[in-house]
Request: fold
Amino acid sequence: MQRIRSAIRTQSESYLANKAHNEKVFTAFRERQERARYVRPERELARLARQGKMTGRQRVEMLLDPGTPFLEFSSLAACEDYDGEIPGANVISGIGIVSGREVVIHADDNSMKGGAWYPRSTQKIIRALDIAIENRLPVIHICDSAGGYLEDMAGVFVKGGRVFRNQCILSKMNIPQVAIVCGNCTAGGAYIPGLCDYAIIVRGMGAVFLGGPPLVKAATGEEVTVEALGGADMHTSISGTVDYPVDSEEQGIAMAREIVGQFRQPTKAYHPQATEAPYYDPEELFGILPSDIKVQFDMREVIARIVDGSRFHEYQPAYGKTLVCGYAHIWGYKVGILGNNGVLFNDSSLKAAHFISLCNQNGTPLVFLQNTTGYMIGREYEEKGITKDGAKMLMAQAGSEVPKFTVLTNSSFGAGYYGMCGRAWDPRFLWCWPNAEMGVMGAEQAARTLGDVKLAQLKRANPDVSEEEVAVLRQRVKEKAERETSAYFATSRMWDDGILMPTDTRNALAIALSVAANAPLANPSYGVFRM
Amino acid sequence: MQKIKKVLIANRGEIALRILRTLKAAGIPGVVMYHRVDRGAPAVREAEETYLIEGETPVAAYLDIENILAACRTTGANAVHPGYGFLAENAPFAKALAEADVIFIGPTADVIELMGDKVSARKFVEARGFPVAPSAIEEDDPATFVERVAKVGFPVLIKPAAGGGGKGMRVVYDGANLAEEVERGRREGERYFADGRLFAERFIENPRHIEVQVFGDQHGNYVHFWERECSIQRRFQKIIEETPSPALSPEQRQEICTAAVGIAEAVGYQGAGTVEFIYAPTGEFYFLEMNTRLQVEHPVTEMVTGYDLVYEQLRVAAGEALNYTQADITQTGHSIECRICAEDADADFAPAIGKLLKVREPVGPGIRVDSGVIEGQDVTTAFDPMLSKLIVYARDRQQCITRTQQALRDYVLLGVTTNTAYLDKILSHSDFISGDVHTGFLAEQADVLKQNLSQDTLDFLLSAAALTDEQLCNAVAEIPELYAAMGHWRN
Amino acid sequence: MKREFVIGSESYDVLLNKALGEYHLDVGDRQLAIQAEEIGSGEYFIYVDGRKQRAFVAVDDENTYIHMEGKAVTIQRIDPFEKIMGGDGADGSGSSLLAPMPGTVISVNCEPGQQVSEGDVLMVIESMKLETTVAAPREGIVEQVNFSAGDTFDQKALLVSLQAEEE
Reply:
């Protein structure tokens, strides 16, 4: 395979300017992430110390095999909800290695508001379990939550049920789950250990019940202690709801590791070949991504900094040049890459549809590197059938049986976001880079279009509107558009699986490729292509 | 040697095997008696005839005179070699054998009785004009014993009159705790020897322990086989012995050996015996005690003189006359013996136990290993911690030291902690190399003699431990390649 | 995977990894590239960062015995997770008096339930031909006395225990 020949000059003015700009963007991301992970109010930490508890994150770190990676999901979930006070939506989730097995870990983050479940919390758990289902990964739940956030019962209740539904589906699929009960599992939360194949509970710390002592007292007048109602010894010796009593969280974690060590290693649908590091330094991505979202860059420069040896077999290099297609390897895993190099035209759409079918035919997972402002518009392109050519691309992409992975590298606007496997198209994983923006249209264009509409409304109500009022309106619309197209807005709502540093993309994709191979590949089949 | 038809070896470990070898070479049938804990021992494996003994404890089995008499009757052995320890210096045993018409390979019972008691031995020797250290004997006048001990002068060494091997010995540096220490010494004497009588003598600071191998036959011939220096002791027990002693001038050597033969002749000694002396840094020497048996360290003497002392014992016991004179016995070259013990020198010589998982004895010019253990054997605390003896011969002392060190380094004994590295460390000590040692040397240099590991050695050790840890390697192998290669990565 | 290797009184935390066919050992903040080649029964060439040593290695359940550079070293292997599962040693320290070495009990000077002060002689034992006293490490109440005079015991045997201290 040919090595991509990079045209980047690391001393050029534009490179240095981009680098300076992006370093700020990326540092800001890292700082937000560090805060969400580690910064907690003193009183919460004091409470944990008093209870003799580890934080959720410490538990995850102890559970993992030392010296192995952890691919965390949505570290900034809920970062723009609840006034930013529920870091990571009070849930830590991700893929890690426990006793040599790939597993999904769901750990309640007990270091803020007792690990209470907000709507975004259950959403995040559900997503983690969806990932487990799609990629046939065993799940380890580390339970320590105060329960559903009572002030938003409605927001948790209806959708939250899917946590338990997903647990049942996992079990039905013969995918094992382990629960370590390190705190209260109240009401719905009680079903988490209840639905696991193996449940462990820490004496004097863990408790499982449908209704806690206060609720029992209110309902029936019965007075009962936490230990008697749902403590470790009761559940492991009387009710049989939980399997293993342990004396400490550490012992619970060691027990879980022993249990996972018994699981059968999965049969992989495909295997990696020998790997090599990228020839070009991934750090150079900082100088390649533009400081202005509107400035074009060559996606091959990005590919060169993600794939093995920077080697890329380009398919149809001379046709449909606004979409780069080709084969490469990531940590030895063969992938078919589609990367935007401009607006999607008829030929680039056809090329995409063709290349996607090829990859399905030969069982090659797909990686979409998005930088798109959408499909070309205008009379000429409509006459050429840009819509039906785009439809072919969508049809091929949606019908894919091979795993798909999407990375939003810069701009993701309009139907291009759909064609390049946006969230709604069920890629196994989708990540945003910190600089990424997405939406029906770009913030500037949206501000202009929406601003015009609003201004017309305003003028109808008050024809004498002042210049200042107009300026204020436009500014407000622009700010809202900017906020709502940002990666943070998206990641807060879990429209992605987290914001990813460009330099982490290679590893994240490799882990995704490895776990995706746990599910067998079906034969390709599609809907009807409009010819 | 027609008189000796068959020999029962009333011992175990390395000495049983060592005696058996001489018997085999001399064409005399040998019987190895053993307790069941020793059934895998090399002597038991190599013997053509064995005899199982029993006892309340393994040690008791070997100490049971009835056991041995029964063994002689059953096997038809008409001679017993007691080795060292156990019943080797037990007069009633020697008597019992004589009554049963079995030859005891050792001195007569009355000599054992006389010389086995430190007090009577000392009196006997002193009376015949041989040098002894200032002392006090309890039974002379028990009421004034503490007073008389104080008069001997401090520091003073208090020991059981019936003792040996360092058991129950204590050094008292001033008069403050004297009465208490005397009482404690009495208790220990009672426990070990069923004899609480004590004996005290001036403790000579920084003394050397020098002993002389003597031999006598039943026809009034007496010779010595030169001296051995045994100053390297831990807890009053020898661990390195050598000959010739680096401390003696030829004149002093002559003087001390002559005194030893004189003592042997005075008691009418028959067979192999050892006269032990305390040798002061100033050059005087005092009679310490006489061991009426073959010593653990006898091989160094064999190495430099060329005689097989066990063979000579057999000849004397058979009533034959020494067929050589003093002039025939020359001391050539140098020999060092190291006692390989199952113990942790870095943990106050705590005895070590376990299974010997790997044993590989050193080989090479001048190297002799008298071993009582083989691979797969369990080492328990039932017996003495000594596993084997490494005896090395070379033309001169310097070469002998380096050859011994190399042999110690080549000696692989895994599964039980041993003192090989500690012995190596002693041999590397500049004071040992220059011969400037005394019986307190090891205690004095304890800090210097501790093991230390360099960073480099540590890296290799930890690596070897990790890579031979099957469970660890299996767990590591379970981690998919991709994740192991990625390492501790966090997004 | 982690191990705690104990040599004498020193303890070393190591992390073994195998990536791309090569073993790596993390010791403190250093990483060593290591390899073992078995050249005979229990006989190895050990490679560390390209340097080589010959070693004899024997392993039992608890320890690894290595003869290298002319000396034998015993390394106790501890699997941190197994240690946690064992769950021992968590109770109040200083309550259990373990035998420093194998030996015999000479006398027992206390009985269960007895109040003792720091330094009180609880037992006299004999090891290596010397008497040693086992003294109370702190004030407390004797919980168990596990041996009588004349009994023999192994290294690390629990001789006497004191009741756990109130928190």
